[in-house]
Amino acid sequence: NDAMTGAEARVRADDRGHVFHSWSAQGLIDPLPVAGGAGSEFWDYEGNRYLDFGSQLVNLNLGHQHPDLVEAIEKQARSLATIQPSFANDVRGELARRIVDVAGETFSKVFFTNGGADANENAVRMARLVTGKRKVLAMYRSYHGNTTTAISLTGDPRRWPNEPADGSVVHFFGPYLYRSAFHAETESEETRRALEHLEQTIVLEGASTIGAIVIETVVGTNGVLVPPPGYLAGVRELCDRYGIVYIADEVMVGFGRTGEWFAVQGHGVTPDLITFAKGVNSGYVPLGGVVISKEIAAAFDERAFPGGLTYSGHPLACAPGVATFEVFRRDGILERVKDLGERVVRPILEGWVESHPCVGEVRGTGLFWAIELVRDKETREPLVPFNAAGKDAAPMGVFAKACKDSGVWPFVHFNRTHIAPPLVITEDELRRGLKVIDEALSEVDALIA
Ligand code: PLP
To answer: What top-level branch of life does the organism fall under (predicted)?
Structure first.
């Protein structure tokens, strides 16, 4: 109707006129005006509904407008909307305690930040201060955030325009069997050679110069790369041997994405610092942080930590964080993620490797999967080149459009689509969305036939 169209036109005009968007050439984008959302869906002003298969930016773990989270924010807003970080506050303290409880006995404290980038920024700062060593190792094919240290850690093209980056970061190759940097043919070979490569990097860079290794437990945006068995345990061992702080970036995978509180727990490994954001409160209010081991926390008992933020542990952000813990327990979120991932997603996706010429590999865990699209299964040539944009990226555009036209908002990155829906998605919605993706893949099959 006209009123609806008027509202949409206003939103679009304000956006196009005045909102400067992330990572974009401002004149080449046309952001969809979103009118609302509930659970796993959101909708536009024309009434088109989309199943959110990327959970926004893989942060909307409990879906849109979850009543418990909304209520927690409302209640907190009425009681105390803000209080600066040097005071003790009930929800801030309770959230920190609950996070430490699930992280395990190695940990004692949480430093709250506004998001993931500044969580990594501060984790690296802690590691440098406790070790007295400045260099940091991070992976190619990684994303750690857009502030100076975090973008320097990043091993993808988002770093390039920000260079020269912090020169104290050195990149190495992580395991990625489908496109192995080590010519490996089995998982165990990949694990062993990736660890040898990491150890060589440490030795040649000088263990005495390296304060931290930062690793996304499951590489997120750059491909849902689940580390093969033994890899993270090997990293832990190298960190111990060479006196290096192990920082697990769990910004994307923490809080249930893989069916664990923290994904490292599925690998039987304990890092020294864990960074988180996104899923801690589904992004309803910006929040991130660093979970700190007892040992590192104790290093700042007598000595001041030289870092802080006006909004560290903001009560409006912590209140839905506390509510997140209640919902996870009451609704068995971790169990349902494991169940849906293994019982529903895995068999369907594995079938696509057989049924679709364009599907080179599928991989994942929990409700976190990647489908790698190729031109040729034999050569594994990606459907679109690395870092493709514009015309080069067109085949992925065909895929995305087919999904959207049938009511699924897909997560697309380079030659991959990721399956990362809200953890509260119903089985029916999940199956419906996967059917849409199946059909969209058939359109790509036709393109390369
Ligand atoms: N680390 C990882 C693994 C991420 O996926 C992201 C964001 O996508 C970040 C860090 C940065 O988080 P933020 O955008 O909240 O700064």
So the answer is: Bacteria
Judge residue 445's burial from the number of C-beta atoms within 10 Å of its C-beta, 0-12 exposed, 13-18 middle, 19 or more buried.
middle
What are the φ and ψ backbone dihedral angles of 106, each rounded to 5 degrees? -65, -25
Residue 1 confidence (pLDDT): 56
Which domain covers residue 79, as residue numbers?
Answer: 68-330
Q: Is the CB of 152 under 6 A from ligand 1?
A: no
* Strands 210-216 and 135-139, bridge-based pairing: parallel
Whose C-alpha lies nearest to ligand 1, atom 10? 144
Say if ligand 1 is within 6 A of residue 147 CB: no
Q: Whose CA is nearest to atom 7 of ligand 1?
A: 145
Tell me, yes or no, whether 261 and 322 share the same domain. yes
Q: How confident is the model at residue 171 (pLDDT cuts 50, 70, 90)?
A: very high
The reply to whether 94 and 189 lie within a common domain is yes
**Domain-embedded: residue 380:** yes
367: pLDDT strictly greater than 60: yes
pTM for this entry: 0.98
Helix, strand, coil shares of the chain, percent, nearest 5, are 45, 20, 35
With 90 as the cut, is the pLDDT of residue 101 above it?
yes
State whether residue 416 is helix, strand or coil.
Answer: strand
